[in-house]
Amino acid sequence: MIVLGIDPGITNMGLGVVEQSGKAHRLLHARLVKTAHSDPAPQRVGEIFQNLRIVIAEFRPQAIAVEEQFFYRQNELSYKVGWAMGAVFIAANEWGLEVYGYGPMKVKQALVGYGHAEKEQVAFMVRAILGLKENPKPTHVADALAIALTHLFYLGRGGGNRI
Amino acid sequence: MIVLGIDPGITNMGLGVVEQSGKAHRLLHARLVKTAHSDPAPQRVGEIFQNLRIVIAEFRPQAIAVEEQFFYRQNELSYKVGWAMGAVFIAANEWGLEVYGYGPMKVKQALVGYGHAEKEQVAFMVRAILGLKENPKPTHVADALAIALTHLFYLGRGGGNRI
Ligand SMILES: [Mg+2]
């Protein structure tokens, strides 16, 4: 089972591809997509879309999992994370992939065992599960890998929050 | 000059194509794209994207104008309007089109002459400018046509709010 995890954003978007075989997990690919604030929105969302297409075409994930946060203080931020999600959905639809969403507490529950764990504990677990020598960086990529592993965790329990 | 006006939304998306030649304005096309709440998000955003592509391919607008609202009470609503905007940006990028955004007050200023005009006055002006026998319906389509005319108004004054 190969999952593409995504920490969605318009300026920084973390992508992480993880493969599970049996109980083993392996990091296949990690990438940070950055777009310039000074570029027009169609170009920025277009770049995100192209990166998604390239990663999906190369690693052929069987599902996409994204981090969803609804406690954004600013509506404008929610709106712009939505732009990036539009690109995720169109790429997913193009490849016939289902998209799953998990909030930060679900990630902490899955990887650390309780919903109020520290971010450092999540990063430590991602590193341990994937057998990495160092914590994955930058944080958006670490978040993307955590989301992919979170989806595999809930999937293994017959669940998963499809959006 | 042909402009595609859009009232963005994930459940209801209004599209209106308007042509200006000299001082005359003509309605070329109007469409309401509805998606089902019960369908997965990739399918819904995919349907919006396909409708945008079809309308752009048929009417070849030279610009896209969208209604932008930042006073959403709910972050989740802003987020989902963002999903639809992602589709707009990807379609725009595909066709090399610029996207312009205007808030409700800018629409009222452009079409009625003052920013606190009633919605009915905006609808009346859309009908008058386009020479329609009735007010355009439903409201999402009327809003899309108003946005297209708003863009032409600001463009004629050398402006336009590119996003
Ligand atoms: Mg992050």
TrEMBL record, chains A, B:
It comes from the Bacteria. Its cofactor is Mg(2+). Transmembrane segments: none annotated. This is Crossover junction endodeoxyribonuclease RuvC. The RuvA-RuvB-RuvC complex processes Holliday junction (HJ) DNA during genetic recombination and DNA repair. Endonuclease that resolves HJ intermediates. Cleaves cruciform DNA by making single-stranded nicks across the HJ at symmetrical positions within the homologous arms, yielding a 5'-phosphate and a 3'-hydroxyl group; requires a central core of homology in the junction. The consensus cleavage sequence is 5'-(A/T)TT(C/G)-3'. Cleavage occurs on the 3'-side of the TT dinucleotide at the point of strand exchange. Keywords: Cytoplasm, DNA damage, DNA recombination, DNA repair, DNA-binding, Endonuclease, Hydrolase, Magnesium, Metal-binding, Nuclease. HAMAP family: RuvC (MF_00034). Mg(2+) 1 binds at residues 7, 140. CDD domains: RuvC (cd16962). GO terms for biological process: DNA recombination; DNA repair. Homodimer which binds Holliday junction (HJ) DNA. The HJ becomes 2-fold symmetrical on binding to RuvC with unstacked arms; it has a different conformation from HJ DNA in complex with RuvA. In the full resolvosome a probable DNA-RuvA(4)-RuvB(12)-RuvC(2) complex forms which resolves the HJ. GO terms for cellular component: cytoplasm; Holliday junction resolvase complex. It is an enzyme of class 3 (hydrolase). One of its GO terms (molecular function) is DNA binding. Belongs to the RuvC family. The gene is ruvC. Mg(2+) 2 binds at residue 67. It catalyses: Endonucleolytic cleavage at a junction such as a reciprocal single-stranded crossover between two homologous DNA duplexes (Holliday junction). Its main location: cytoplasm.
